[in-house]
Amino acid sequence: MSEGKTKVLIAEDDFVVAKNLSITLEERGYEILGISESGEELLQSLSKEPTDIVIMDINLAGLMDGIEVTSLIKNKTNTPVLYLTSDRDQKTLERAKLTNPDGYLIKPFDGDELVSAIEIALHRHHLSTGNQKEDTVVSESHLFVKVKNRLEKLQFEDVRYIEANDIYSILMTKQSNYILSYSLKTLEEKLPGSRFMRVHRSYIVNVEHIQAIEDNYIQIADKSIPIGKTYREDLMKRLSII
């Protein structure tokens, strides 16, 4: 087993779905400790080895559904749980909310959405348990971002844009994305204005990565970023337009 990998238990009674989840996460560097079809099996696995997060389908085989299993997990351990479901029923959602899950993802979803949901769930759990140490250190040419138990150095030139997500922000590079426990307003104050610019209430961009502007959108790689009305004039002044 590779040290430092996020350890995941999957509770999913559909074998094909479970296998696809496992393959997707292993390809992205996660360690899959096991796949359980039922809540009873999941609880046994959870008691055997420390787990970083449980991916929990709400509909399971066995006597308990995923919500009942999560309630037991929350009462006995401090393990974060990310719900997966194709059920959009409001009553199911309300039942799930009572267990204080760390995340909730509606099927269908792609690999990137799954990874983002897992990382946000882990980060939310990290904050809720009181481990709210500084997770970002900014210098003149780079910043350090906390990833698990270490700080990773990111050069400013590698940062493409930062997107607001609830009370968190997601920093995007070509290779990866990073969850930060800062609002965009705080990051705007921390990052050098010579390189980064707020272009929307939900986005800060690295102006060096802007490839095109069409109508009210900025193109950075394969991402179209909206330009807010209050930011458009400053953006146009900032860019060298012939």
From TrEMBL:
The keyword Nuclease does not apply. It comes from the Bacteria. The keyword Phosphoprotein applies. Residues 143-241 form the HTH LytTR-type domain. SUPFAM superfamilies: CheY-like (SSF52172). PROSITE patterns: HTH_LYTTR, RESPONSE_REGULATORY. Residues 7-122 form the Response regulatory domain. The modification 4-aspartylphosphate is found at D57. Pfam families: LytTR (PF04397), Response_reg (PF00072). GO terms for molecular function: DNA binding. This is Two component transcriptional regulator, LytTR family. It comes from Ekhidna lutea. One of its GO terms (biological process) is phosphorelay signal transduction system. PANTHER family: RESPONSE REGULATORY DOMAIN-CONTAINING PROTEIN (PTHR44591:SF3), STRESS RESPONSE REGULATOR PROTEIN 1 (PTHR44591). Gene3D superfamilies: 3.40.50.2300, LytTr DNA-binding domain. Keywords: Phosphoprotein.
